[in-house]
Amino acid sequence: MPSTSSGSNFLINRNDHIVLKGFLNKKSERGNKWENMHFVLNGTKQQLYFFENDKRSKPKGLIDLHSSSLYPVRDSLFGRPSCFQLVVRALNEFLVHYLCAENADAAREWVQALKLYCINTTPAKSSLRHLLSLNIHVFDAHHLPVKSVPYPYCTISINEVKVCRTEAKEAPNPVWEDDFVLDSFTSLFVPPARVLGLNVALPGTSF
């Protein structure tokens, strides 16, 4: 179970329901740096706070779950397991928070806790969920520019949410032959008719 601390109590009213505390790795908004941070899930305020460590009294930031959707992250996207993502859509804001737990059990615990507060996974939405399956096969590409993309890979997104990616292969004629079965992911789009956009992108382009 994720470790706990009382270092962030200043944000917690006596009657607030603190669902879960613990450490997660958070990907930087720019670049590929991951930072280990302490998280506090406040169920009463429906917010997820994150701190530089469990001794800090001031949060580095917060994620408002009122406007957040929860989605899994396949291991292939970053080459690391036990990740998930919170996608914030509010007014003109679109922001993705990638989080990674220490192991599969910790990731499962966080996901189960967050499901109660995210807009696409709350119990009120459960009756609308359908079991969907999307099978994607990425074959190959031809005549890619070697100088600008020497080792291309494909990133697959649904409704602007990154799902998975292929391995990098050598240009100009990479052959991937990768299969992706997206069953648990597509069922989180509510209602299913909102699964409207599928994008397969190479570095610097998309099709």
Automatic annotation (TrEMBL):
Biological process according to GO: regulation of cell differentiation
InterPro entries listed in its UniProt record: C2_dom (IPR000008), C2_domain_sf (IPR035892), PH-like_dom_sf (IPR011993), PH_domain (IPR001849), PLEKHB1/2 (IPR039680)
Keyword Methyltransferase attached: no
PROSITE patterns per the UniProt record, alphabetical: PH_DOMAIN
A family per Pfam: C2
Protein location: Membrane
Domain PH: 17-119
UniProt GO cellular component terms: membrane
Keyword Plastid included in the entry's annotation: no
Alphabetic keyword roster: Membrane
SUPFAM superfamilies: C2 domain (Calcium/lipid-binding domain, CaLB), PH domain-like
Coiled-coil intervals: none
Domain of life: Eukaryota
PANTHER family: EXPRESSED PROTEIN, PH DOMAIN-CONTAINING PROTEIN
Name used for this protein in its record: Ras GTPase-activating protein 1-like
Organism for this UniProt entry: Lingula anatina
Lineage: Eukaryota, Metazoa, Spiralia, Lophotrochozoa, Brachiopoda
